[in-house]
Amino acid sequence: MHIALILSQPPGYSETFFKSKIKGLQDAGHQVSLFVYKDDPRFTDCKVLPMPKVHANPIRQFFATLGVIFGLLPYLKRVIRYVKLELKAGRELKQVFKYIYINATILKSDAEWLHFGFATLALQSEHVAKSIDAKMAVSLRGFDIAIYPLKHSGCYDRLWQLVDKVHTISDDLLLCAYNQGLSRNNAVAKITPAISMELFNTGAANKNFKTKPIKILTVGRLFWKKGVIDMLEALSILKKEKIDFEYQIIGEGEQKEEILFAIYQLGLENEVSLLGVKTPREVKELMEISHIYMQYSHSEGFCNAVLEAQAMGLLCIVSDAEGLSENIIDGETGWVVPKRQPRLLAKTLESVIELDDVIKNQFSERAKARVKQEFTLEQQQAKFVEFYN
Amino acid sequence: MGKRLKIAVFSGTIPSTTFIEHLIKGVSQTHKVLLFGVQTKPVAYESEHIKVYDTPKSHVKNAVVSSYRLLQLVLKSPKDAVKLYRHTSQFKKRYERWVWFTKVLPIILHKPDVFHIQWAKDVAFYTVLQDAFGIPIVVSLRGAHINYTPIVDLSTAIIYKQEFPKIKAFHAVSKAIGEEVKLYGAKAPSIHTIHSPIPPFFFDHYRACETVQDKTIRLVSVGRFHWVKGYETALDAVALLKNKGYNIHYTIVGPDEFTEALLFQCHQLNLVDNVALVGAMPQTELISFLRQFHGMLLPSLKEGIANVVLEAMAVGLPVVSTDCGGMAEVVIPNETGWLVPVRDSEAMADAVIALSETSELELHAITKRAHELVKREFNAEDSIAQFVRLYEGVVGG
């Protein structure tokens, strides 16, 4: 079977989710090709086909359009079918021509499945699958379903009507889609992210919780939905209680100014450091020397970093945003705290820090075991092979 | 009256903000005002004592104007011309040397008695006027330049620490900001608190506010969406009030669409029907618009002193403000309003409840006191007179 994945760009080195998915499908004997808006020559795992670029220079755009028109001549039937479908759905003719241009590469494909890697990527391409006699699948990943539609109400109405199968990474995101009009009769499959146990592996040794001060870690872009300010406010309460801790955040982002000001205003300059972006290997090393992992997001699809932290034996404290409450089993493999309540987070942090080392190790070991059992790349690959059958 | 002094009111652009334009006009009653910088819009000042010496944006025009200015300077004071050339030769790129030469040239040529920098970050480029040419510098401490830039950007803090100890005089918009500037080495006697004036028509529109009936509370905030304004705290407080059974309506008046973060928060906290956005409006319209509310929220993380709060106090609207910057100097608990810690939505919700339970008599006593305080401390005449005294002090030694 030929499966085409549509992404904005080829998966980078650390994006195990897509890389392992592609490998799994290839190992099962399927042909996989990748359609991207922005190419990256470093990616060589499968065939990559760039989508036509929209040029700012009108002369370049003219020749690019000419090239696209000639390229599509042998596929005239498909193009006519596409135009008919689009017009029937009430799209303006001018828009339709623009979309033919954008979708030209896919219109030429002989794929049997078109799988859009994020729901937002399917906007403007809803009728392409039908035009080339392929089935359409879409993945719900977090931002695309939990946040994007707030400013673009009804943006997925067409998609829901036409999609053949929906992939979600958590139950909560699927619920978001149902609330936004996805039919409950639609075929769906939940396949959670998975992580590489080769890299994030501590061996058999128990984590040492005796070292002081308590080291707390978060990995994530410095971006509003990650709830960094709430975490800092909770830590300022810990400081008032004279608890000795260090907090490190791995990541960069547009919220940095606000976060730096909060660190200053809350008097946490000695305790908190922003480390910037780190490689997966460096992340692993920082996890090795940390005790607690915190992910108190306002919104979170699932969060690979929380899986990695569990695999590394850290005590994980997370919010109940979307997929996080499925990532961590509250009171068993970590702690799930209702979101947007820094005081409650501080209380949980305090009680976790005060736990006996034996109990801490029990949590750590249970989390490790569950991740090793339920979130392996092999399982994820098998589920994706099944997804297209 | 003695000889008119030449006061340069420098904000980089001509015309400047409403506020700085007001200062320009006010000062021109007593002294000459010189305006340097880039002219972005045509200006026509009535007063003959306001002179514009702009540096044209077009390179050709600038070359002509600046050549003429250079000729004048060489004739007037060849020494200064050499000094200016030496100063600009420190810039590495030829383009930068040219730009800075043409920006500083008219200032050296017309040598004001005081160079008043409106935006503190400009000290990096203009203290040379004092160091090499003996023009005393006054610096205003307003907005982001003092409120958070030097805190989140280390290089700005380093420049402030290097330059501030030399500055002849600072203008702080509140006592709190005056205290803060000491962190960067500003000397106490050089710091002068001069309040920003509130336009008189606000005071003319004072009216006793409405009181809360049947747990239905209408709140308002005015301002753009920026993290420093702390709207997350206000929305959290609104959610708490809603959960406590209050029928709550929160209106934000401002020029922006919701940010993604705030829109998401409204949905997540189920506040979509409780929160409304209204576009920015002229001050005269704003006054009557504000009448429908029971109180104004100021959830800011940092302020010099928030004008919107002063305006609310002037027209008689009760205020719940965070305790940041100079807010505590005007919002006095049990006297003129409700003051709560920053980042504390529970305290803010409690303050709104306290406001709603205050008797009409007591509430009107509070808003009357607030009105009187602002009228006394933030009037235009006093403000201009204080600036004039400040300039005269700097020149007199």
UniProtKB/TrEMBL annotation, chain A:
This chain belongs to the protein called Colanic acid/amylovoran biosynthesis glycosyltransferase
**Glycosyl transferase family domain boundaries:** 206-369
Molecular function terms in GO for this entry? glycosyltransferase activity
Pfam families associated with the record: Glycos_transf_1
Leader peptide range in chain numbering: none
Q: What is the top-level taxon of the source organism?
A: Bacteria
Task: Provide the alphabetized UniProt keywords.
Answer: Transferase
User: What InterPro entries does UniProt report for this protein, alphabetically?
Assistant: Glyco_trans_1
Automatic annotation (TrEMBL), chain B:
The protein's UniProt keywords, in alphabetical order, are: Transferase
The answer to keyword tRNA-binding applying to this record is no
Spell out the CDD domains in the cross-references.
Answer: GT4_PimA-like
Q: Which InterPro entries match?
A: Glyco_trans_1
The record ties this protein, via Gene3D superfamilies, to: Glycogen Phosphorylase B
- Superkingdom assignment: Bacteria
| Signal peptide (residue range) | none
Domain (Glycosyl transferase family): residue spans on this chain: 211-364
Q: Which GO terms fall under molecular function for this chain's record?
A: glycosyltransferase activity
Q: What is this protein called?
A: Colanic acid/amylovoran biosynthesis glycosyltransferase
